[in-house]
């Protein structure tokens, strides 16, 4: 999954939102710095940039929905694959124990231990 485009899209929105404000400052750092023109007095370029920013935002929202859907799907698949692997591992472990007197004792730190065969396999279900 490649999400490199998200940063680029967000950067473009940031730039165009700035252009909508005619690249002026809300709090000008110096007296020479441009201020944001009031609504109703913005340039044609600012208005164009504002409309483009709205379109870009719609595209980013659509793209975020795609990324979200893919993440949810991959997380679900990952979980399913892990569950199958754990089930197989547990079945394998149970099958591998051919202990005639398998009565493992559980220790909260060491886990299961069978004195008869020395294995850490849990008791047969
Ligand atoms: Zn045993």
Helices and strands, in order, run as HHEE
Question: What ligands can be seen in this structure?
Answer: zinc ion
From the helix content, strand content and strand pairing, which structural class follows?
mainly alpha
**Domain count:** 1
Average pLDDT confidence is 92
Using only CA atoms, what is the Rg? Answer: 31 Å
Report the sheet with the most strands, covering strand number, pairing sense and barrel closure. Answer: 2 strands, antiparallel
Strand content: under 5%
Q: Any low-confidence stretches, pLDDT <50, length ≥5?
A: none
Give the termini separation: 41 Å
For the largest sheet, list the strands in their spatial order.
Answer: 1-2
Contiguous helical run count: 2
General shape: rod-shaped
Helix amount, in percent? 55-70%
Strand segment count? 2
């Amino acid at each position: 999954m490649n999400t490199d485009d998200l940063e680029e899209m967000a950067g473009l929105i940031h730039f165009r939102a700035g252009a909508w404000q005619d690249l002026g400052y809300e709090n000008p750092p110096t007296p020479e710095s441009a201020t944001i023109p009031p609504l109703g007095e913005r340039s044609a370029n600012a208005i164009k940039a504002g409309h483009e920013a709205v379109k870009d935002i719609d595209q980013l929202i659509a793209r975020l929905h795609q990324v979200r859907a893919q993440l949810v799907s991959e997380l679900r698949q990952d979980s399913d694959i892990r569950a199958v692997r754990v089930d197989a591992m547990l079945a394998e472990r149970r099958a591998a124990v051919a202990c005639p007197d398998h009565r493992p004792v559980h220790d909260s730190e060491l886990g299961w231990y069978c004195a008869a065969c020395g294995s850490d396999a849990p008791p047969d279900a």
